[in-house]
């Protein structure tokens, strides 16, 4: 018999054994007490007959870093963080309350708890619902912010010091930061900083005070009491701005606004963010724009080139000018007033004094004189709403008045002068002025161009045509006669010039013959002069050569004499040197000889003294004078000096006197001996 194996399924087909893994839980209902409890793994749960599994096993709630979740109807815990049960053993709940849980250990949901937010995969239980879904932590950069609103009163500890928030309070937090809204806070909107250049701006309205201001040139983020404000513009002004035409280069594009082309200009719908952008207009060079502030009741004029940015209470002054030919009012719509120089063309009808009606097409050159662009001068520019219509009407009135007093023939001949005089008038010197000024807006007309003059009625046109044909015939005949007379005159002039030319040629020929003779005479004179000059030059050259030869010969003689003198000087120098060397050697030999003789005499005297002996010399010294004389003579001593040694004597020549002739050279001694003999 096989062993019995326990089954996980009861006899009713329901699972009775549940193996709950770690970090899993399940809800079990005790049908006897009608209390639901939580079983947490890891464990093996055996279901009893009176129990029923309502949930699970499911994963516990895991809140990762930087996330949170909101628990509705959280369980009640005591000071030791232990669950609190009621008297029947059911876990107590904080019904209607919310609890925000941050990163922590995995936890189960107890019966009655509902999770609103959090990063977790789970199944909604019966009676549960998600209010706002799963949400992340708000990570705000330095260009982001959140507008918050308090649902109920609470103490906001995110501020230092803490702030008490009352229901309905609005405030703003700015990045960089991480923010997890508590259950008492409702997030209204997320704000982003708007980067604005110097030529960009936005309109911002304070929802508390209603004050509207313009923000430009910096990065700005709306706070909790501000919102973007859309500036409303008149429809025509907005159409002009949306067209994107250059007021200067596209100043003829007003024709496109008529007929079928007008349907192509559509108003662009602006979103709230685009509509809140500041209204700007680029004013071209040599143009002006007037802006009126309806709040301060004053206007300002901007001269180009510049960029205009409207303040919240400012509007552009729209110009409605006359256009077309002939001029019609309210044809040109523009925001910029061109200051010129420019021109306008008009067609007017005039009637002469003889009732000839003419159609004139005129073109006027004009410009505005703004001077130093002071506020007074700038305000004058826009004092006339339709300066084109005013200009054309004023000029046409002047021309009609002048032409009405002029006959057709006079006007036909002098139309330019008559029209210029009518427009510009005459000065005190009865000369036509250069400009026509409108002092109301400093508009000046500088010139009038008559483009065409045409009669209006057919009768006048036929008369004019006949007059023109007759004038053409008369002019043709006059031109033929003039041409014939001119041809005859030119023929006579040609004949006269030919005769004068012949006479002039003969005179020139005589002058040339005279010049030829003069040249011949001059040539002969030059030839004779050249021959004499050549002979003189040859003689001078011969004399120069002879003189140079003599100079060279004298130089050679002087050089020879110099060589001879130098040779003789060299010979004498060498002879004197040899003679000096001879005498020097002879003197040296004589000195050597005398030295040797002196040494011999000294040796002789020394030997003589030694031969006499000391006693003999003492005896001689003590003997009488005669004996001494004899003794000295016997010794061959001719003279002697005996002193006591105390009396000074001159001994310069004493030694030679003592020695007598013994120290004389033999030659002198011989001469002395010969003299004595």
Automatic annotation (TrEMBL):
MVP repeat coordinates: 66-113, 142-197
Compositional bias segments (type: Basic and acidic residues): 482-506
Stretch list, region Disordered: 476-506
Top-rank lineage group of the source organism: Eukaryota
UniProt keyword annotations, A-Z: Cytoplasm, Nucleus, Repeat, Ribonucleoprotein
Stored InterPro entries: Band_7/SPFH_dom_sf, MVP, MVP_rep_dom, MVP_rep_sf, MVP_shoulder, Vault_2, Vault_2_sf, Vault_3
Chief site of localization: cytoplasm
GO cellular component, one term: cytoplasm
Keyword Nucleus among record annotations: yes
Domain Major vault protein shoulder: 340-457
PANTHER family named among the record's database cross-references: MAJOR VAULT PROTEIN
This protein's name: Major vault protein
Organism name: Argiope bruennichi (Wasp spider)
């Amino acid at each position: 018999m096989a062993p019995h194996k326990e089954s996980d399924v009861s006899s009713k087909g329901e699972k009775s054994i549940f193996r709950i893994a770690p970090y899993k839980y399940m809800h079990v209902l005790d049908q006897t007490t009608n209390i639901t409890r939580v079983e947490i793994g890891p464990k093996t749960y055996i279901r009893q007959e009176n129990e029923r599994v309502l949930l699970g096993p499911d994963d516990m709630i895991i809140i990762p870093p930087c996330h949170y979740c909101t628990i509705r109807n959280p369980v009640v815990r005591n000071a030791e963080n232990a669950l609190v049960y009621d008297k029947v053993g059911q876990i107590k709940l904080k019904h209607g309350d919310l609890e925000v849980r941050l990163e922590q250990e995995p936890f189960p949901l107890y019966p009655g708890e509902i999770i609103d937010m959090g990063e977790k995969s789970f199944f909604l239980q019966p009676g549960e619902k998600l209010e706002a879904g799963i949400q992340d932590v708000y990570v705000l950069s330095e260009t982001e912010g959140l507008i918050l609103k308090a649902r109920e009163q609470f103490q906001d500890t995110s501020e230092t010091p803490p702030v008490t928030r009352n229901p309905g309070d609005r405030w703003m937090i700015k990045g960089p930061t991480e923010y997890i809204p508590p259950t008492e806070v409702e997030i209204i909107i997320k704000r982003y900083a708007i980067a604005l250049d110097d030529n960009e701006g936005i309109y911002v309205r304070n929802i508390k005070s209603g004050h509207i201001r313009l923000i430009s040139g910096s990065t700005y983020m709306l706070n909790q009491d501000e919102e973007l404000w859309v500036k409303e513009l008149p429809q025509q002004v907005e159409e002009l701005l949306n067209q994107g035409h250059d007021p200067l280069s596209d100043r003829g594009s007003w024709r496109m606004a008529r007929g079928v082309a007008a349907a192509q200009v559509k108003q662009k719908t602006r979103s709230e963010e685009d509509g809140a952008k500041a209204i700007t207009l680029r004013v071209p060079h040599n143009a002006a724009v007037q802006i009126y502030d309806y709040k301060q009741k004053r206007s300002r004029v901007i001269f180009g080139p510049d960029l205009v940015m409207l303040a919240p209470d400012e509007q552009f002054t729209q110009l409605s000018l006359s256009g077309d030919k002939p001029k019609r009012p309210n044809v040109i719509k523009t925001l910029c007033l061109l200051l010129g120089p420019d021109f306008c063309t008009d067609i007017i009808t005039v009637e002469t004094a003889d009732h000839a009606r003419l159609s004139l097409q005129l073109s006027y050159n004009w410009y505005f004189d703004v001077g130093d662009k002071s506020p007074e001068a700038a305000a004058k520019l826009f004092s006339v709403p339709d300066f084109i219509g005013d200009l054309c009407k004023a000029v046409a009135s002047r021309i009609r008045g002048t032409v009405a007093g002029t006959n057709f023939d006079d006007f036909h001949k002098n139309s330019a002068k008559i029209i210029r005089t009518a427009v510009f008038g005459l000065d005190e010197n009865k000369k036509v002025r250069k400009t026509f000024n409108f002092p109301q807006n400093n508009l000046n007309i500088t010139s009038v161009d008559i483009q065409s003059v045409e009669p209006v009625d057919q009768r006048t046109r036929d008369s004019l045509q006949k007059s023109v044909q007759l004038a053409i015939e008369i002019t043709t005949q006059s031109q033929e006669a003039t041409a014939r007379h001119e041809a005859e005159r030119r023929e006579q002039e040609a004949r006269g010039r030919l005769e004068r030319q012949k006479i002039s040629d003969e005179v020139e020929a005589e002058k040339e013959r005279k010049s030829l003779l003069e040249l011949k005479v001059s040539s002969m004179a030059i030839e004779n002069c050249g021959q004499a000059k050549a002979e003189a030059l040859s003689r001078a050259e011969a004399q120069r050569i002879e003189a140079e030869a003599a100079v060279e010969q004298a130089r050679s003689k002087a050089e020879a004499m110099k060589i001879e003198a130098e040779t003789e000087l060299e010979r004498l120098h060498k002879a004197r040197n040899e003679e000096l060397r001879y005498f020097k050697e002879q003197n040296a030999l004589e000195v050597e000889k005398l030295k040797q003789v002196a040494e011999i005499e000294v040796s002789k005297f020394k030997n003589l003294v030694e031969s006499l002996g000391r006693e003999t010399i003492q005896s001689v010294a003590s003997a009488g004078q005669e004996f001494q004389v004899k003794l000295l003579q016997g010794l061959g001593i001719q003279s002697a000096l005996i002193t006591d040694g105390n009396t000074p004597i001159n001994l310069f020549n004493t030694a030679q006197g003592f020695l007598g002739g013994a120290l004389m050279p033999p030659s002198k001694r011989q001469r002395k001996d010969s003299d004595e003999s």
